[in-house]
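Researcher: Quick one. two chains, 516 residues in total.
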Amino acid sequence: MKLSIRKLRKAFGTDLPSPLVAIDDVDLDVDEGEFVCLLGPSGCGKSTLLFIAAGLEKATAGVVTKDGQPVSGPGRDRGMLFQQFALFPWRTARQNVEFGLEIRGIGQEERWKRARHWLSVMNLEEFADSYPHQLSGGMQQRIAIARLLVNDPDVLLMDEPFAALDAQTRALLGEELIRVWQETKRTVLFVTHSVDEAIMLADRVVIMTKRPGRIKADIPIEMARPRDTTSEEFNRHRREITGLVRSQIDEQ
Amino acid sequence: MSKPLRLYPLVFRLAPLLIPVLFLTAWELLIRVGGYGNILLPPPTTVFAALFQMIADGTLFVHISASLKRVAAGYALAVAVGVPLGLAMGYSELANRLFGGTVNGMRPIPASAWIPLSIILMGIGDRPAVFLVFIGTVWSIILNSSHGVKSVPKHLVWAAQTMGASSYTIFTKVIVPASMPAVFTGLRVAVGIAFTCVIVAELIAVRSGLGYLITEARMIVRSDIVIAGMIAIGAIGYLLDLIVRLIMSRTLRWQKGLIADSTQ
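Model:
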């Protein structure tokens, strides 16, 4: 098991009389090379779960292990993609991609060799010297993907990375992500609130309940890729998963 | 129809000159023709004659360089102390607790209130002027730098952490560059304050510089030199601000397009 989450609980304001429990009693396993989407209503703690796995947030109880080792803090073995892209605006595309290599003391030539490879994989080579603000949102997130993959992390944690993009760019980036994922076979935990995006991307869609977030359902998607959003099988998944998510919103 | 349209750009370009030209003309005419002139208020032509006289014989440049040297020394000192201190206060809660109270306690004392004490302790000369520039500018440099660190978007730090950056690396490669726009805002505000401080200091505590030039001229009732000196002060102040703006827009090239106007 690549990534293993056991009895995970996160409460905010534990010093208050009634702490806010974001997630409670979550068990989740992600296999090596598996693409898992976490889906749930907003505020269900799916991002919190991801931040704990990244080591950016501490769990109140329970444990996350990667390759059997408990996660105690952030590390480059677990790379992350953010909804706000989180590019360094004072660095060009190339300098952004080189960041992780630079801080490890890798020489300039080697740095550029690896950065250029990932920039070209993301079709961004000609924008290497552009600053993030000169590029569109979709291009910025592709730089962030290149910046993530150049560090060779074995788990990719993605926090609604395409939520700030328009529908078309979103679909396109999803396809690109799947292409890169199929080539590199990394383990992916992807948070989204879009049912279609989850079915499009995932090997398994894990649905969380409303706050406190627990795992409600774990649905394998066994369709061949690339997936056709208009196919009957896609629709069947869509109906089932939409129903499960909606029942969460309607409750209460 | 076409004629006013073609004329318009010229009118537009000359518009800023209209008020100064009207003002100077009215002033000149009131004295020359209206007979309002006396020894206390010379016409603008006399003022400009005095200005060119001081440029020609080099006195103006002696005073300008005396003032600028003090500005440079006090400002450099304030930057050297204020930027690292402000960055540290923004990054570390301990540093903030250690220095924050003192900074906020000292800041409300206007630079001019420091003049008597600095003359008592340092006498008349460069030292009180340099000190005044320092004490007048250091607070805004500290506060803007510290504010810059505190407003660094969290996700930039998260991104660096998930790429394996240590907290030292995060400080030098994320916090510091991300704070630069705010640091530079502090530096720019400080240049204006520094120049004000040096003039104030020279009115009282020093015997050279542009501030001294105009108080000295007052003593001998040379209003033409006083006003010429004020014009020189305005011009130097403008040039200083222009230089800082140029440096800012070169170093913060990446910021263009992120904020509405990076040169104003």
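Residues 120 and 126 of chain A are 8 Å apart (CA to CA).
Researcher: Thanks, that's what I needed.
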